[in-house]
Design brief:
Elements (H helix, E strand, L loop, with lengths): L7 E6 L20 H7 L5 E7 L9 H4 L6 E4 L2 E4 L25 E5 L22 H8 L3 E7 L1 H14 L3 E10 L7 H11 L3 E3 L11
């Protein structure tokens, strides 16, 4: 792997209040990614922050179905896991973590905005065919290497990585800048092995040292 700032992009996936400790769907130790992410932003020219941005009656909410959290239902787009209400448009929970260097962003991409369609990946909605527009933006800039950080390793980071690999991008997952839900226990380790087997690279944020992109 050779790092080229002009052809690489840093993706900061869903580091939002609702996915951090104390949030509606808090990932254990999720806010620990903020420091490594901030250090990494100093190395990249192209930086994307993603946000879940759901309407109040979103298809992924158990309350929208009158069902229990973590049950599954069948929709026209396949099986949908039901979550607590989270990242509702304009809410504090949907806001990016206040410690992030958001001013470094080249693009803030909001996803999961369609009432009847969830979106884990930063590249495609959960029907696996509707693009978010991110691929076109990246191709226009000549980006071929995606460095993934954020929450959660075994959900939105995983789906973003799978789509990126399928599209032919080099995928680098920054291990100390991601955290997983790990439900059921062992899921996160399986996801890491899965992605490694498909060609994703796993590195530490320290691999880029303390420099800054000129």
């Amino acid at each position: 792997m050779r790092f080229e700032a002009g052809h690489s992009a840093l993706l900061v996936v869903d580091v939002q209040n609702d996915f951090c400790p104390g949030g509606a769907l808090g990932v254990p130790d999720g806010d620990a990614v903020v420091g490594p992410v901030n250090r990494l932003t100093r190395h990249f020219r192209h930086i994307v922050f993603t946000q879940d941005w759901h309407p109040a009656d979103h298809v992924s909410f158990a309350s929208a179905w009158g069902r229990k959290v973590y049950e599954s239902v069948e929709t026209e787009h396949g099986t949908q896991v039901l979550w607590p209400e989270h990242c509702v448009q304009g809410s504090r929970g949907a806001a990016l973590h206040p410690g992030l260097r958001v001013e470094a962003a080249s693009l803030i991409l909001r996803k999961g905005m369609v009432k009847g369609l969830d979106s884990y990946s930063a590249l495609f909605e959960n029907d696996r065919v509707t693009p978010t527009g991110l691929e076109g933006w990246l191709r226009t800039l000549g980006v071929h290497s995606l460095w993934l950080t954020g929450l959660a390793t075994d959900y939105c980071v995983r789906y973003t990585a799978l789509d990126a690999l399928r599209l032919g991008f080099e995928v680098v997952v920054v291990q100390d800048a991601v955290r997983g839900v790990d439900v059921p226990a062992g899921r996160e380790a399986k996801v890491v092995n899965e992605l490694k087997g498909l060609g994703a690279l796993f590195v530490s944020s320290q691999i880029l040292g303390e420099g800054q992109v000129p």
